[in-house]
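Hey, resending since the last one bounced:
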Amino acid sequence: MSRDKRPNILLITSDQQHWNTLGCINNEISTPNLDRLANQGTMFNRAYCVNPTCTPTRASIITGKYPSQHGAWSLGTKLPESEHTVGEDFSEAGYRTALVGKAHFQPLRGTDEFPSLESYPILQDLDFWRDFNKTFYGFEHVELARNHTDEAHVGQHYALWMEEKGCKNWRDYYLKPTGNVERQRRKWLIPEEYHYDTWIAERTNALMEDYASTGDNFFLWASFFDPHPKYLVPEPWDTMYDPEKLTVPSVVDGEHDNNPPHFQLTQQQKPDFSPWRESGQGLHGFHSHLHDDKELAKDIAVYYGMISLMDKYIGKIMDKVDELGLAENTLVVFTTDHGHFFGHHGLVAKGAFHYEDMIKLPYIVKYTGKVPAGKRSDSLQSLVDLPVTFLKAAGIDVPRTMTGIDQSEVWFCKKDSARDHVIVENRHEPTTIHAKTFVNDRYKITVYYNQPYGELFDLQNDPQEINNLWDKPEYAELKADLVMKLLFAEMGKEPLWMPRIAGA
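The structure tokens again:
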């Protein structure tokens, strides 16, 4: 048992998981362990990311700041090592801190000015990672990987683990950097015993065993890679779902007529996105999204299989929490970094399209005796709130640099809500996408920097977000009011890191 009554913090995340891919709310998918977690805790129906891409939102999870504040504002940027992180606060308070799995705080290509430990060639220098024992963004211990499914970026601690398990031919299951290995389609040939879900669960459980044996409190992040595409999963999970029995979302005729131009272009066979690529850098989602529904159904079946496989290993982690007697003293949060399209609005994967499918998240909180079991809450949550709330729950002072909001009293059912809005950012300079979305109890508005277009949805009367009200004269007053609320929200999230200590 822990040496004091402060809670351990166990954060479990997936990657790019649509908010409704939980068995307890979608009977087409099986997630018995996440369902169990939801029944033991509270599921928040209105949780949001701060940016619908990996690096920015993951950096917010450890800094408690928005991407526009911590510096890692887009994919391809790097979270500066100078940024203060929540792991530092937990370490200073006597906690053990660790991250197992995906970090992605740094880009895949580094430079002399901005070097990256998550880039080539160091990414695949196994001798370097075998001896790596430095603190990494406030985590005293990390075990990292970078690849999604069979990407060429495999290496780091995951590759070391595979070799230790006897899988000396692990390279056979992955693309080579030159791309000269035939791509696997839907069925990943790697045996489940060498899958990174197995690795993450095994190493997370080993760390918890270590902490339990010494009586140390811990802040531990188990960071899974799935169900981020490519759609690829080992057998038998690749055939667990029958594509013909799955719902395939689709575009509604004319729904993009009133939307910004990049929405409309996605529904063309050969769209011209050149105005968004003036720098030569691409942008996720800026391509044709036209697809064959039967092929998409097969992809959805594998996407669901990836989630069900991950669910199995999340179950192993939760079983270990119970086995070690840590359940009464461990605050567990499950969520993802951002959402995913699989046909919704005619879109696939991800991009600068701030529908609920992209920015809303699965979000479960469990803390036996403090967080109500089996509850469903509509309280607004944001990933930027996680580090603040973790620290508050542990009785640790929150740094003034953090701009997230403490949700602990909401989680512990002492008040109904801590937020009346959330903000989602999306910037990909020097392309023309620089957007901010404001969401409150009923409405959602998205504003684009220096652009006349935008989006305004009434989530109460139009939950599917089909009818964009932005240009409708009868909603001009509402739009002006929401733009003002967005401005106030932006002003409200400015950090005041320096306390005022004198009148002059």
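The longest helix spans residues 293-323.

Sorry for the duplicate.
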